[in-house]
From TrEMBL:
Pfam families: PP2C_2
PROSITE patterns assigned: PPM_2
InterPro entries assigned to the protein according to its UniProt record, in alphabetical order: PP2C (IPR015655), PPM-type-like_dom_sf (IPR036457), PPM-type_phosphatase-like_dom (IPR001932)
The protein's name in its UniProt record: Serine/threonine-protein phosphatase
Domain PPM-type phosphatase: 14-245
Organism classification: Bacteria, Pseudomonadati, Pseudomonadota, Gammaproteobacteria, Alteromonadales
CDD domains assigned to the protein according to its UniProt record, in alphabetical order: PP2Cc (cd00143)
Organism: Colwellia echini
């Protein structure tokens, strides 16, 4: 009998949750889990008085209508066009319904096809990868303090307590021109991806995040991340989506 090695296909499982946090009266975050087409998103709305929730929900609802494409580039283009359409609709909504009051939302999306992952984002919602017990941030914040750090004007530690730490430089719905950043990377079995709003990483340290990600089940990790943020008095809405690559027929 020939010795034939059968490669089990890689599949992606996910869990997500959101919480209003300990200070805000409204939850303006939204998230999307669509493992059937390997697309996940976290959107963090801003604008108050339900404006932010309108913005984040519009992004998520638009993306939820997408269908998988055989060609990765075409799928990425569909995502970019969909978010750009949400940007234009939010500008019109603000003009007609809110007398021009600015509303908007950051977003971060993860798309996986085969052994390739794609991160698309605008703002400071983040994508992390947890691989071989190491946590790496894939997205790069579109924020004032992130620019200061990249220019060497302040340290990452100083950025955490900077008075303008909440000033973002890019978001959906705030400008006629929307630039969406895209990063492409490899994915492997065992990779664990974390999409989150700033309500999580501003309240939970990297060490605490990694400790939560070591939980055996995804839903336990999600619950632990949010509970840790709440225990640390999270001052913003907290949204978490976890995505893990496994071989089929392997429980998580």
């Amino acid at each position: 009998m020939n010795d034939i090695t059968v490669r089990r296909p890689l599949t992606w499982v996910s869990e997500g949750a959101t919480d209003v946090g300990t200070v805000r009266p409204l939850n303006e975050d939204s998230f999307l889990c669509q493992p059937e087409i390997c697309l996940w998103t976290v959107a963090d709305g801003m604008g108050g008085h339900d404006g932010g929730s309108v913005a984040s929900q519009m992004i998520v609802e638009n993306l939820s209508r997408l269908q998988s494409k055989a060609n990765l580039d075409n799928f990425v283009t569909d995502i970019e066009n969909t978010v750009t359409d949400a940007n234009n609709r939010l500008l019109e909504y603000s003009k007609v319904e809110l007398n021009g009051r600015i509303i908007g939302s950051t977003f971060v999306s993860l798309l996986i096809k085969g052994n390739i992952g794609v991160c698309l984002w605008a703002g400071d919602s983040r994508l992390y990868r947890f691989r071989q017990n190491k946590l790496s941030q894939i997205s790069r914040d579109h924020s004032h303090v992130a620019e200061l750090v990249s220019e060497g004007l302040i340290s990452e530690e100083e950025a955490k307590n900077h008075p303008e730490a909440n000033v973002i430089t890019r978001a959906v719905g705030t400008s006629e021109r929307l630039d969406i950043d895209v990063d492409v990377f490899d994915v492997r079995v065992g990779d664990l991806f974390l999409l989150c709003s700033d309500g999580l990483y501003n309240a939970v340290t990297d060490d605490e995040i990694m400790q939560c990600l070591r939980e055996s089940a995804l839903d336990s990790s999600v619950n632990q991340l949010i509970q840790t943020a709440l225990n640390n008095k999270a001052s913003d809405n907290v949204s978490v989506v976890l995505v893990k690559g496994i071989h089929q027929n392997v429980s998580v």
